[in-house]
Amino acid sequence: MKAFEMNKPILTSRQQEIYDFLRDKIVTRGYGPTVREIGLQFEIKSPSGVMCHLKALEKKGMISRESHMSRAIQLSYPPQPMTELPYVGQLTVGEVYPSANPDDRLDFSGLFNSAEHCCLRVRGTGLQEDQIVEGDTLIIRRQPSFRDGDLAVVVYEDGTTGVRRLYQESHRIRLESARKTDTPHFVKSIIVIGIVVGVIRQY
Question: Hey, how many other C-beta atoms are within 10 angstroms of the C-beta on 63?
Answer without folding.
Answer: 22
